[in-house]
Amino acid sequence: MNKVIFLDIDGTLVTYENKIPETAAAAVRRARAAGNRVYLCTGRSEAEVYDEIWDIGVDGLIGANGSYVKDGDEVILWNHLSAEDCRHIVDWLHERGLEFYLEANSGLYGSEKFETAAEPSIKEYVGRKGRDSSHTTVRDVFPEMIFGAKLYRDDVNKISFLLRSYQDYLDAVKEFQGFKVGTWGGAGETALFGDVGVKDIDKGVSVDALLQHIGADVKDTYAFGDAKVDLPMLEKCAVGIAMGNGGPEIRAAADYVTDDVDQDGLYHAFEHFGLIE
After folding, report:
1. Is residue 265 within 8 Å of residue 226, measured between CB atoms?
2. CB atoms < 10 A from the CB of 92, how many?
């Protein structure tokens, strides 16, 4: 078998402004034309993988940071919150006055005031990536988020919520001891969001499950990412590549650091490792 390539989406395949560099799309197409397999490996649920990404052409998806694994049209793994778990988390967030959104393969479902409450944090998140965020809105980042739908569901991969302070995260860890509770948008007390999902799942676990399913050897794998959440994927694969715009943890852990996502970083790395002809 030729090589198996795992790509994070945000900050790796797609810029922080939700744009796909033409060279990134070309790199994926040329790698597959050379006989390699390319899988998305992202924190996004399937509903957030929009048509312009699928249209590039990929072999499958690891979504929700490893909770959902799909090879072609075949779902080989799906660990999601139960209806009871979802109700528990939603009720707790409502009681604390924390706005949130549910991440399901069928869609993203925002809480009552998420669109307005999240805008300052979204602007800060984009700004921290060194981009102009002055006109960024929640709709820019989540163009198909659904509001006004039921929030008690049985198909939710994970739930992200706004942090008013780091204490909200610490309280969530205490409340949801049987779950995986994390943060994103910053390290430690600079985090902007918390999230709650299924315990003992990460990108590395699901990379392993997918490799077993397709009969591939880990020695033939390459992983590309830009954030701390990508570390299990880079650690699992034979070669781990960090984007130049990535955080310090992933750049330190990577075997190779390429250029920024919007400076043809993906294409340059594919060239460097002979993944395209």
Report:
1. no
2. 18
Strand order in the sheet with 193-198: 146-147, 107-110, 100-104, 156-162, 193-198, 179-184
Q: Coil, strand, or helix at residue 76?
A: strand
| pLDDT tens by residue, 160-198 | 999 999 999 999 999 999 999 999 888 788 899 999 999
Identify each DSSP E strand in the chain by its residue range.
Answer: 4-7, 37-41, 60-63, 68-71, 74-78, 100-104, 107-110, 146-147, 156-162, 179-184, 193-198, 221-225, 239-242, 256-257
Distance CA 231, CA 249 (A): 8
C-alpha pair distances (Å), 54 with each of 4, 115, 145? 17, 26, 18
Contacts of 51 (CB under 8 A, 6+ apart): none
- Shortest CA distance to 157 belongs to which of 54, 48, 74, 59? 48
To the nearest 10°, report the CA torsion of 178, 183, 187, 190. -120
pTM beyond 0.70: yes
Q: How many residues does the chain have?
A: 277
DSSP letter for each residue of 88-127: HHHHHHHHHT--EEEEETTEEEE-TTHHHHTHHHHHHHHH
d(CA 12, CA 43): 12
